[in-house]
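Researcher: Structure prediction, please.
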Amino acid sequence: MRILTSAVVDGYSRRKYRSVSLRFVTGEKTSDEIAQIDSLCEQFGYLYFKAEESITPEEVSDLDALDTELYDKPKTQSQRLRNVLFKVWQQAGSNLEFKEWYKQETERIIAHYKTKLDD
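Model: Predicted structure follows.
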């Protein structure tokens, strides 16, 4: 799903880790357009802003054709695994601190896969 609309840059604010929060203001929107925008909240995507009157059909085609498979997920696989393990730790109610539990659990996973290696 995508949003393609005219907008004015309304402002920005610096965030931690050198990121930036951008604010845009659009013209009036229909209820369906607002629902579409609402459905995209907290989704990862790409922003293309062109400071001109219009965007050409060729530019829209080029943007739709971008291969973004490598960047569609904001987290690396290792970050995703650590987050999942954190949830498992929370649900298990372990007496260990997460750091220690994580070390033990990753050692268990490593040992499991080492058994699958040929000598």
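Model: The two ends are 49 Å apart (CA to CA).
Researcher: Thanks, that helps.
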